[in-house]
Amino acid sequence: MARIDLDLAHAYRPDPKEDSDYALLPLTMSFEDGGAYALLGPSGCGKTTLLNIVSGLLRPSQGGVRFDGRDVTALTPQQRNIAQVFQFPVIYDTMTVAENLAFPLRNRGVAKERIRARVGRIAEMLELSDQLDRRASGLTADAKQKISLGRGLVREDVSAVLFDEPLTVIDPHLKWQLRRKLKQIHHELKLTLIYVTHDQVEALTFADRIVVMTRGRAVQVGSAGELFERPSHRFVGHFIGSPGMNFLRAATDASGALTLAGRPIPGQADGDVPGWRPDGRLPPGAALSLGIRPEYVEVHALADGGPLPDGCVAGQVERVQDIGTYWLLTAAIGGETLKARLSAQSHPPAVGARVALRVLGPHTCIYGADDALIATAAPGREERPDRTRRDAEDLR
Ligand SMILES: Nc1ncnc2c1ncn2[C@@H]1O[C@H](COP(=O)(O)OP(=O)(O)OP(=O)(O)O)[C@@H](O)[C@H]1O
Q1: Which PROSITE patterns is this protein grouped with (predicted)?
Q2: Is any ligand 1 atom within 6 A of the Cβ of residue 198?
Q3: Which of 22, 153, 283, 376 has the highest CB neighbour count under 10 A?
Q4: Model pTM?
Q5: What is the pLDDT of residue 39?
Q6: Domains annotated on the chain, with CATH
């Protein structure tokens, strides 16, 4: 196993000038020895490029790669001692399942007894034990991909195992089982795993740390809880969660108090809003964006002409959807919309009702004009770090 350090950029075209010429903009990042990582982002954001640079299939146009401090930039995947699992099964049809699993070990001259033990263990983990003597040619695509996963995991001496969307061909139910299985296998084998996916549920279930990428940039590296609670960039807030984070156009007045549509959000002067006190002074007179996840928006009835509760904005209910495990309420606030996830046991307000929506609280995030996080609630606020993993379960 190895610690992997990257300090690089990559452009497929020669002589890159603008950001858009780069598949990967300059980045510095480390994968800790024995960690389970996911590279997550939409199509074309640079995930495969990054994975291929780690494996040695691609040489970065700038900078380099270090394994345990050693410069491996010019080395091949074999020399780097990398195992890879691709989208589609790479196995030998004429061999049995056991022979396929044993292949990477036999290639390296591992002793027979050791091979038998390791193949037995991997087959057991992947529930392939009863198929070990079957010829691979007769197996389903799912079973073949399981063998590919097994071949990737069978060697104990690899620097890292890299997965490029390995569950694409897998049937949805089995996909769910395998995601959990891989997590369990990581805990047992303690291999460094890097897993490319565009599916947030897959990333959040599998990885301890997730690298969120967009347009050639790694915008945040964090645990599921960190990405959910404190997205460091608006893209992360939007991409993680179902639905993603709400963003409202906001500003600060001369004293640094937050305003929406030119009106101060009530309660800030006294610090009365429950759980809300920014962890730094907000710049006065700035154009900002207020981010709050649908899970954390509180919805209260609002009497005509009645005062707005602290930390709230006024809105009108546009839509209420029954999602099964929760209600999804959409409210109009001036020209913008805000979504709130309400408990399935609650009685949501009717469409057309005027409501107060609490947007300031312990989970509010404030973003600057460049979409980067500039403030959250100061410590001491209520934390719900397990939320994302639970949400990932809801989505499956
Ligand atoms: N061999 C190549 N030559 C030129 N451009 C490439 C090459 N491979 C990828 N690109 C471009 O580099 C950018 C990043 O591609 P990459 O395949 O790394 O993204 P990705 O996030 O893995 O996408 P996907 O999920 O669709 O595989 C894209 O704009 C893509 O068109």
Answers
A1: ABC_TRANSPORTER_2
A2: yes
A3: 153
A4: 0.90
A5: 97
A6: 4-229 (3.40.50.300), 243-395 (2.40.50.140)
